[in-house]
């Protein structure tokens, strides 16, 4: 039982982490998550699901402890059932993401391309979203989604004949203090220019995001595996406790 208490406590901690992650997705306004969260309703829905799963996981940890302490078989059975449903849901979600990754990638590309096309430093209504994308380009040292050429579709830059460029893309030391809005070219060529004339990073943010995922793939898989192992362990312990409670109750029956 002592080992079971430790596992149930781990579930409460795990639930708190999942709950906190869901809240962070909704509250974050300065990273790539913010770009997705403010542009894609599906990510908001996912964040609410994480909050719900986190709260349910914490509740299950409490029910598991309560069932183990008081030897209540129905609580342990409920704990096992909910845990099995969550584990199956997680596996199904992972399979959906894996087989739909190209569709998700296209949706993400469309979101970012629309953001770049409509980027306007004077538009206060989209300030948080634009600041989040500037933060991404600054931190990853990238420009555009596939490359700096994406910014040639920006309406403001078209009106300025491409004689300005996004400051957050800059690889020039003089622009280090400016990480948002547009910067002007020092020497425009015949009052017109192209992205090739801009002092910006060549790498697109898509490559930067994919590189980040590959670099952190081991950590992501490790966390997912750890969560699955804890869930399986909880299921095994709940079933074992149910059987032990049944055996103990049977031995307490007086012999005739």
From TrEMBL:
It comes from the Eukaryota. SUPFAM superfamilies: Tetraspanin (SSF48652). Signal peptide: none annotated. Pfam families: Tetraspanin. It is found in: Membrane. Keywords: Membrane, Transmembrane, Transmembrane helix. The chain crosses the membrane at residues 7-27, 47-69, 76-99, 219-242. Belongs to the tetraspanin (TM4SF) family. This is Tetraspanin. It comes from Columbina picui. The gene is Cd82_1.
């Amino acid at each position: 039982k002592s080992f079971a208490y430790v596992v149930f406590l781990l579930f409460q901690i795990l639930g708190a982490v999942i709950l906190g992650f869901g809240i962070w997705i909704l509250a974050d306004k300065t990273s790539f998550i913010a770009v997705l969260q403010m542009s894609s309703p599906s990510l908001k829905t996912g964040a609410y699901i994480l909050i719900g799963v986190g709260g349910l996981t914490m509740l299950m940890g409490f029910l598991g402890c309560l069932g183990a302490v008081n030897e209540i078989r129905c609580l342990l059975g409920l704990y096992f059932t909910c845990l099995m449903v969550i584990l199956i849901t997680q596996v199904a979600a992972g399979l959906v993401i894996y087989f739909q990754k190209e569709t998700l990638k296209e949706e993400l590309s469309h979101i970012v391309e629309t953001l770049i096309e409509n980027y306007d430093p004077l538009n206060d209504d989209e300030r948080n979203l634009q600041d989040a994308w500037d933060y991404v380009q600054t931190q990853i040292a990238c420009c555009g989604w596939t490359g700096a050429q994406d910014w040639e579709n920006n309406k403001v830059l078209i009106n300025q004949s491409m004689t300005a460029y996004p400051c957050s893309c800059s690889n020039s030391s003089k622009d280090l203090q400016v990480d948002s809005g547009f910067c002007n070219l020092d020497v425009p060529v015949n009052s017109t220019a192209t992205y090739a004339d801009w002092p910006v990073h060549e790498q697109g943010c898509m490559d930067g995001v994919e590189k980040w995922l590959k670099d952190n793939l081991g950590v992501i898989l490790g966390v997912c595996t750890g969560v699955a192992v804890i869930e399986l362990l909880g299921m095994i312990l709940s079933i074992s406790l149910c059987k032990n409670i049944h055996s103990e109750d049977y031995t307490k029956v007086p012999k005739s």
